[in-house]
Each structure stands twice: as structure tokens, then as C-alpha cells.
């Protein structure tokens, strides 16, 4: 139990809003529940959530100690009262989640609990599959990341051995990642590969495609095939041969077929005409093609997983099977 004394500058606030600010890790749903159950007392008695506080009031909070920790990414899962996940596949070792565009995989520079990793950790914590107080160092972690404005399958490891093996398999290209995108125009040829070198400008957070090697540039390889074309747009599947920053976006743009909605590498006029403000790119399928021993994960070799729907594919190419 912890006590908080209401100071002059906090007087006049509602009980629930004051506690929400004083204990930022406490989920809103749990806060309201604790008020109803009188685990949050005002001057020794239960109180309604909209009670206005006065200077000198004493709040007694019968709340677990972990909620009083300073907020940081490692404990942000505590703030997630009801995890929201679109689970593609789950077993005792891995969790495949369909991340929606707009969600961050991890917090970006400041504390944020509305991230994929926070929701995954909250999900496993609430299922009692993971308890950080019983671990020395490990926490469920993501094996791959997807940009905020890109959606698709993200792999999460439930244990340290899975994280180690999966990171090795991704690094050795034994996990195949397939993306769907809508591009402006028609790729020529309709199917092929894009080879080149990508130079990253970290200051501008932008990459540049080069045809020849240069200092700081890294090789980039993307395989693609056109699935359908209509109205000056094409639905394209891309498979990564390498995994560089903004690889598909930059290489398709350099090939004359920029992604619709891409504000950095795309066609601004067509983006505005279609009302698209984020790149239409989705990591819709992945396969485990293990060529070497995967230990406890050998059972996944040869398995393939995909999301059920990709909204922009249905919007621009309804009825097309991909």
C-alpha cells in the first residue's frame, strides 16, 4: 500500500484523473476497477471516481508495487489493460502477429505503451506464460520489425532459445518474407528482380538506389511479380533477397513503379488523387525454409503463414486471388 497526499496544485481534480497521472502505468480499466472495489480509498473510505479532491486529502492505494515503477519501454506492458493482437499463429515458442499500419513495433524515442511489443508482452503476462519477476533477464521479444506505416507479419519469440535461433535464421535468409504492394504504373518486365546498391542517409531517414558500389552502400536484391494491373495501378508481390531499410519502396520507385501512397519515394500527384497518405505495402506471407538445424524449431521447417486479408488489395483489385 502507498499513500499520496493531495497538494495545493492538485486540488480540484477528479479522483480517477489524479490517480491516473500519479500512477501512469496503471491501465484505465484497472484503475476504474480498483476504485469500485475500494482498493483506492480517500481519507480511509471508498469514493466515487468523479469525487473532487481537496488539499490535504490522503489517498491510500492498495495496488501492486510494479505499477509505481517509472514508466519505460521494459514495463510498458503493464499499462495495456486489454491487449489487441491479430494472431496469425501461436505455439509454445513463437507468436506471429499481423501488425496493422500505424502501430509502432517499439517505442520511438519516448515512452509509449501502444506498441506491438507492449501488447504482446501484456498478452503473455496476462495469460501467465511470462512473469518478469521470475526471469533474470529475458523478456518476449520481436525477431523482425516493420515500419510504422507498413503492415504485416511480425515474429515474436516467447523464450530465449527461440529468439536466438530465429535471429540466426533471419540473418542467414532461411525465413522468406513476401510483401504485397500497389504501385503506380506497370513494372517492366512484369516479373523479375531488382539488383543494386542502397545508400542510407541517416539524417534524412532516406535511402538512395545506386547501380554501382560506393562507400557506405550495401547490396540490395528484390524479386517481384505482377499479379494484376488496372487503372494505371498494379498489384505486385515482392520477395526480399536482402533486408535493407526502405528496400522495396526505394527499388520499385527507382524502377519506375513507385508504391501508391508513399510520401517519400512515390508519386505525390497520384497519391493525392487516390487519397492515400501511407505506402500500400504489406508483409502478407512468410515461410520457414530452414537449410540448417533449427534445434527446437525444426518442426517449423517448410511451414508457411499468411494474413487472411489485405485491405488495399481488396480496395483496388477486388476479387483478385494472390
Total strands: 15
Fraction of residues in helix: 10-25%
Strand-and-helix sequence, N→C? Answer: EHHEEEEEHEEHEEEEEHHEEH
Estimated share of beta-strand residues: 25-35%
Number of helical stretches of at least 4 residues: 7
* Most strands sheet: 11 strands, mixed
What average pLDDT do the residues reach? 95
Low-confidence stretches: none
Describe the structure.
Belongs to the pseudouridine synthase RluA family. Keywords: Isomerase, RNA-binding. It is built from seven helices and 15 strands. The chain is of the alpha+beta class. A hairpin with a 3-residue loop joins β5 (87-90) and β6 (94-99). The model has no long low-confidence stretch (mean pLDDT 95).
Summary tags:
322 residues, alpha+beta, eleven-stranded mixed sheet, four-stranded antiparallel sheet, 15 strands, isomerase, RNA binding
